[in-house]
Amino acid sequence: MKLRLSFLIVSVFLLICAFAPTVSAQSGLEAAMSMQQAFVNVARALKPSVVNIQVEKTISGGIRWSDPSGDPGENFEDFFKHFFRGPRRFSPEEFKTQAAGSGLIINADGTILTNNHVVKDASKIKVKLHDGSELDAEIVGQDPQTDLAVIRVKSKSALKAAEFADSDKVEAGQWCIAVGNPLGLEQTVTVGVVSAVGRSGIGATAIEDFIQTDASINPGNSGGPLVDLNGKVIGINTLIFNAPGSGIGFAIPSSMASRIASQIASGGKVERPYIGISMQAVTDELAGHFDLKDRDGAVVMETAKGAPADKAGVRAMDIIRRIDGRVMKSTNDVQKYILSRSVGSSVDIEVLRNGKKENYSVKLEQMPDNYGLAPSESVPTPLSKKGGAGLLDEFGIRLQKLTPEMARSLDVSGSEGVAVTEVKAGSPADKAGLKLGDVITQINGVEVKDESEAEKALKDGGRNNSSVLLVNRSGTPMFLVVQIDSKN
Q: Is residue 130 located within the same domain as residue 181?
């Protein structure tokens, strides 16, 4: 009896082992088919809500960017200008250009959300629906700071609006699907994952809080949705990094996009609080210079004259550590918190200034329409050399007082400071990243307007064998920490 029972157990065990690979393979196939069906369902559900936008623009003279590919796609003038610095030619006469992008229906009445760069300067806009019908569209409102715009069409029948998800719950690693009209190819679906969230500091828009994805985004995808496996919109596809197919694309999160779209649709403009500063992250060099135990906070690079922060007393080189008692770990934290408040309210900003804590009450104001938009492009013109002395030689730089003509040539009009006319190779200034044509406006928190003031600020304000320079480079402010060898 025991022998027969043992034989039965062994037989069952062998049968299970033999059948297990088949069960495992079948299970894997079913999982793959289930995932495939999820993608198909999303594509079907989103198709009626995604539109193709065709734009005609009339441009009068100036610099014209050549389209090297011949593809109708997105506006190649903007595309190459922002990403490739492509070939240019001067065209004195008036000419027309064609652009194309994607859009997302957000209301059954024909309200459509897209990117501002898709419809910017449009003289004519046509929207093509999923059924092939075409409708004329008009611009309801635009928001250059986030690169969003709302347009509207008049349809005889109600259109299908997409549904937004809460992008604050989006996590890196989750599946996502980009839908749009890349390179003029309508109703295209690409699949990937969310690579990261909260991306900022890219320099594409004044306000940045992007979702990064490896789902393929190409010219023409702009303005289309990035959705989750439930078919709900988590972002608006906005830009690609460096080149098509690079695997790095960015989308404006739905929480921001839906809020802005709602304000534009109802009132034609966005109510947005601001304090009027530009920021950068706290680097290891800055943390070391100020004896910080962490890299929490955001360094104020510049305060706009007359802006709320400027009125309250916040200055360049202050390190914002807390707002209303909340720890600010990054520039993104500062931006998101300020944007979450309302115009007219006040916030308490705690900063670290030259190693000491200071508090300022800042009353939030409406952000100007042109605030934070990219400065004009220009190339710095090398300047003639002029002698320097003392600590300037030790740092490896020579300076010249900035004149209005020099400021214009360096694209820093309106700034005061000293222009860098020479950087010695291998010097502390060279290692810190200082370049010919940079304009130094502050050294160790002190404004400088000539060589003697620069020399004094270096001598009086240095600490931990280093000095912090506030530099204006072609209109872009930045901090550089110049480290002097302790042996010197």
A: no
Catalytic residue (choose from 67, 143, 147, 411): 147
> Given a cut of 50, is residue 298 above it in pLDDT?
yes
Give the tokens for residue 184. Answer: 């003029």
How far apart CA 318 and CA 301 sit, in angstroms, is 8
In the structure encoding, which two tokens stand for residue 48, read together? 């009626």
Q: Which range has the worst mean pLDDT, 169-178, 236-245, 265-274?
A: 236-245
Question: Is 292 contained in some domain?
Answer: yes
- Within 8 A by CB and 6+ apart from 26, the residues are none
The answer to whether residue 222 is catalytic is yes
Q: Which domain holds residue 475?
A: 391-483
Strand bridging mode 298-303 / 277-281: antiparallel
| pLDDT beyond 50 at 378 | no
- Show the beta-strand stretches assigned E in 230-363: 233-240, 249-253, 273-274, 277-281, 298-303, 319-323, 326-327, 346-353, 356-363
Parallel, antiparallel, or unpaired: how do β-strands 356-363 and 249-253 relate? unpaired
Active-site residue (options: 102, 117, 200, 228): 117
